[in-house]
């Protein structure tokens, strides 16, 4: 537990980005089976959490790309952001590193 708090600036943003990424995946997979305007509480939650990020991705994605593909691009962007964040922290000497076993 002590390691978590010593690298809180890595773990908390990484957790938030991962949660958003997996919620986008869930929205994409559920969207294969349900209509976009479905009134279920789980679907509304997925849309509430992911819509702000989907709007950002939609802004930088060409209009000819369909909505389900925008969700996949969102997942890929979040994965890239997580990787760049970790690589940047490690490069600056601030990130967690693997230690040899005891």
Could you please describe the fold and organization of this structure?
The chain is built from 4 helices and no strands. Helices cover 73% and strands 0% of the residues. Helix 2 (8-31) crosses helix 3, helix 2 packs antiparallel against helix 4 and helix 3 packs across helix 4. The protein is elongated and about 50 Å long. It is mainly α and 102 residues long. It has one domain.
Features:
mainly alpha; 4 helices; 0% strand; 102 residues
Determine the strand fraction and express it as a percent band: under 5%
Q: Which descriptor suits the 3D outline?
A: elongated
Low-confidence stretches: none
Counting DSSP E segments of at least 2 residues, the number of strands comes to 0
Mean pLDDT value: 89
Main structural class = mainly alpha
Would you summarize the structure shown here?
It contains four helices and no strands. The chain is an all-alpha fold and 102 residues long.
How do the strands and helices of this protein lay out in sequence?
Layout: H1 2-6, H2 8-31, H3 41-60, H4 67-91
Helix pairs in contact: 2-3, 2-4, 3-4
């Amino acid at each position: 537990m002590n390691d978590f708090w010593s690298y809180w600036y890595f773990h908390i943003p990484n957790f938030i980005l991962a949660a958003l990424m997996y919620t986008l995946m869930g929205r994409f997979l559920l969207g294969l089976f349900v209509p976009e305007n479905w009134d279920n509480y789980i679907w509304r939650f997925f849309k509430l959490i992911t819509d702000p990020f989907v709007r950002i991705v939609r802004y930088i994605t060409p209009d000819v790309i369909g909505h389900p593909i925008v969700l996949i691009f969102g997942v890929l962007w979040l994965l890239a952001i997580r990787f760049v964040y970790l690589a940047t922290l490690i490069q600056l000497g601030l990130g967690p590193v693997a230690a040899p076993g005891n």
